[in-house]
Amino acid sequence: MRLAGRALALRGVTRNECDGRTGLAVNIPEMLDDIVWCKRHGVNTVVIADAPGHARFLDLADEYGLYVIDCASNLYGPGVARDEAIEAALRRDRAHPSVIAWAIGDEEDEVRAAHALDPTRPEYSQARFPNLRKVRREELHYAPVTVAPSYSGVTVRNRMTFTSTCDLEFLCRVVEEGHETWEYSASLDVAPGETGFLPVPWPSSGTREVSVRLSYSTGWASAGFEIAYGSLTV
Questions:
Q1: pTM here?
Q2: Cα–chain-centroid distance for residue 127?
Q3: In 41-150, alpha helices (H)
């Protein structure tokens, strides 16, 4: 999948609007809690399963910056009811910038109906991501940036599609026998999808750790929140 001409690396989860305790009566704080969890764990894509998501969830995805693969409906077989459900979902949700694709189905007439209403977005039913409810218990984490300390510095790979690393803090530390003995903070501007190298004057011994942190507060985390980590034992 591509967006604005760039290949997208989808780090996703599947979300069902139906809650195990309350059914379809999912409240806004729970929606926001899911959004914040996704942002903090490096998830950039949410696939809506089974039926269209709540309109407020799409509003939050727009606001916080998540991609959404929106579902029309899989509750109906071929016929008028299914076609009406597809049209209703696309007309309601196609103005949301967070929606990057539709999960419509594999039938040719379904795809054709979706493209007639929205020729700008692809059909993407083949997405297979873990269930959000399950991975929240397992603490899934996708790192948008990876760091690999070495003897002379840190190799930084930016896995984000549109954002550079210029606003991130790279906090380098040395730990010996469980105690921090040295610290060095730096920044490095690595373009999206690129790899860069941060020279670091490491001491000669100890475990070298790198914590990648937000240098500013956002709606989903405060400044200093760690988004990636790497270490090397010398």
A1: 0.87
A2: 14
A3: 55-64, 80-93, 108-117, 132-138
